[in-house]
Amino acid sequence: MKKYLFVVCIFIFSYSFSQNNKKTVTALRVQKPPTIDGVLDDTAWQNADEAKDFVMYDPGDGTKVPEDRRTVVKIVYDDEAIYFGAYLYDSNPNEIPRQFGGRDQIGLVDYLQVNINPNNDGQNDTEFIVMATGAQADAKASSNSNDFRGKDFSWSAVWDSEVTITDKGWIVEMKIPYSALRFSNTKTQVWGVNFLRKMYKYNEQYVWNYVDKTKGDFMQYSGELQGIENIKPPVRLSFSPYASSTYTSFDGSSEFDHSIGLDLKYGISESFTLDATLIPDFGQTAFDDQVLNLGPFEQHYTEKRAFFTEGTELFNKGRLFYSRRIGNTPVGYYDVYNNLSTDEEIIDNPTKVNMLNAIKISGRTQKGLGIGFFNAITEKTSATIKNVTTNEIRTEVTEPIANYNVIVLDQQFNKNSSVSFVNTNVLRDGSFRDANASALLFDISDKGNKYNVSGNIKMSNVKENGENTAGYAAFLKLSKTFGNYQYAIGHWRSDENYNIQDLGFQRRNNYANYFGNISYKIFKPTKKFNFYKINFETLFRYQNNPNQFSSNRFALNTFFVTPERFAFGGRVSTGVGTQYDFYEPRVDGRFFKQNAELSTSAWISTDYRKKFAVDINTSYTKRYHNNNYSYGVNISPRYRFSDKFEVVYAIDYNRTFNEYGWVNTLSDDSIIFGRRDKKTITNTLSSKLSFNTKSSLALSFRYYWSPVQYDNLFYELTPFGDLAESTYTDNHDINYNIWNLDLSYSWEFAPGSQLIALYRNSIFNYDQLSQLKFGENLDNLFKEPVTNNISVKFIYYLDYNKLKTWL
């Protein structure tokens, strides 16, 4: 018996060792590089080493790949670039999914992903993806980015690739110039590398070097690329000049505008890059999904301007930098209304501030020190005011010339940990408000990637009206991060003066919150499920000063995926006892007392591999011992007419009944609440017709309607958080409409160069006709003036190394 036990132990040890042992592959230097045509018949490939013997990544865990699905990758290099040639075998090549999409748009399509890490630090990969259609995607990946959600696909490089479909599968050929990578100027290079292949029809992913999904990040399991010697980082300098023309019409008036500008990238050294934009044009930025906001907190919108989304992984650390602040509403926008005399009217009060220029410098040394520097300047903005009695015109500055600055230092170590410092600063000319915020962050895991401690301490300082106001916030979390069972506990805290709103985003301050969670998930498929996860979490909220209980929540979440790609899950959450809301009254020191609520939701998602698929999400919430309740349903069907044309529609319907909320604060400091019924209907439609991988026609439509009706009886908030009937009367009904339609054509006519034509149609309406039915409301909406916008933008990419050969 002991013999058998000994043999089993040796087997387990050997298997564990083989699974965690790094693979190596050697790149071959060639004098004549291969022609990038998707055919591996060049002499350069003949003697190249092979990266092979891929293993299952998902849904399995390290199992051997079937012979008819094997992948073989070869690597060569010269003084200009590194080249990859891959055979991706498939016994049924006619069935390879090939849904067309543009750059960085990965749909129902097989692909090969190449992860390169020149510093071999296990924390910063550059990813290059080639799809079976020939389309490309590229991204920057950093720690905690095991899936697409944690990757920066806004980063784009210029590189070459071609594919061909054969009777045995398909072939990928890639050329990645050194200008697309950052590496040290050393004689011998050892890079981290891994390859991932996605076979959509089997819903399987394979990797070259085994990745242990039970602990750590994908990047920590790279193999090694050896044999690269005597290469030098090239001059990394590129220009993207642009020209745009815009025609806008609204309510009988029209305007024609045009602009020119320039984006520049320059490699200051082998590790650091300067990005600059001069006279930026954001006219074709996608529209925001605006909503009616009745709550006490500002609505958060994602950044969609390219300069602020590309290569910003360093600047996002600590969450002190919210780039939408730059070019946002002037700080003195609302002061104009308060400063008006009785005989004055506003002729013009700009809602946005123009940005004059912006630069960012970012990179990471070979020893793991990341450095980021960002600076932007916005122009002086003024409102125009007219005296209706004397016809005199005066101006009032709402935002002076302002400078926005971010500095980041991020030291990574042990391939899984980091310590960071972040500082943001806003300086406005004259007596206007200035602000500064700093943060010290840490994210430390043990060498086995089993346990993690993370946290931060942040300080803010606001100078306004000659006074400085300082505040702080802190966070600490302890986690078990490996195995089927994982758990975490943590604490957030902030004082009442913490304020990062000038260049950051925050919803609350003056809080002390405690949380915990425990989850169970599988990493190997079972007979019924490819994956499932069950998570229980709890949260206790307190006001920090004075220390008072606010609310609690206990929640159970589930997520399941079957082998047939049917996904489903749900959530049940509840509070216990009386809940105290310190934010809804909009006055410091006051609170609104309510019963806890029970909330449930459930969802399903069908197989996207089929031509027709649908996502459905339902929810129901009920407040205990109260007639306040809500429900909602979201249905999103999609149909793929062909590999080049797909349509996705979604309708979101939500109703809320007998909800109590703030409506007004009177001059005598009385806080008035109302009881309301709210309805929200959102229709969205998106479709894309791809002519090829370089040109496409896209439609994006959204209609959002939210009517709110209040009871005739209003209430005054008492000092004890209850509501007492009030004699207050006013009409607070709301009928809120947003209509947006974008139709765009894009053509990448050369690497990095684009022609984009856009037609935009938008309507906005805000009134008190909340009793209208859907059809009546549409008729009412279409009586409003329509904004029509037509724009054309031309961008041309110029690489310094190519320009030298032309001159």
Q: What is the terminal-to-terminal distance?
A: 80 Å
Largest sheet: 24 strands, antiparallel, barrel
Which geometry do the CA atoms define?
Answer: globular
Helix content, binned percent:
under 10%
Q: How many β-strand stretches? A: 46
- Runs in which pLDDT lies below 50 for 5 or more consecutive residues are 1-19
Oligomer: single chain
Commentary on this structure:
It contains 5 helices and 46 strands. With 807 residues, it is mostly beta strands. The strands form 5 sheets. It has a 24-stranded antiparallel barrel. Strands 1, 4, 7, 8, 9, 10, 13, 14 and 15 form a 9-stranded mixed sheet that branches. Strands 2, 3, 5, 6, 11 and 12 form a 6-stranded mixed sheet that branches. The radius of gyration is 29 Å and the shape is globular.
Key structural traits:
globular; 46 strands; single chain; 54% strand; mainly beta; 807 residues
Could you give a short description of this structure?
By secondary structure, this protein is mainly beta.
